[in-house]
Automatic annotation (TrEMBL):
This is Uncharacterized protein.
């Protein structure tokens, strides 16, 4: 992975986190499903960029 791709992926993950936090910031209750979805989105983004097929497959497999 090139350094530029890594920086782009990190920036994309941070933007995803910022959007999620912005959506949840003014709410008193947030479901665990919503938090799990946000974390899974970030994990999938980072795993896909890293080329970690095993991590990507495990992330997509329901528990």
């Amino acid at each position: 992975m090139t350094e530029t791709a890594a920086v782009d992926t990190i920036a994309e993950a941070l933007a995803l986190i910022d959007r999620g936090l912005g959506d949840m910031q003014h709410r008193e209750l947030v479901s665990t499903d919503e938090v799990s979805d946000l974390l899974l989105d970030v994990r999938l983004l980072l795993a896909a960029q890293h080329g970690d097929d095993e991590a990507l497959e495990s992330a997509l497999t329901p528990n």
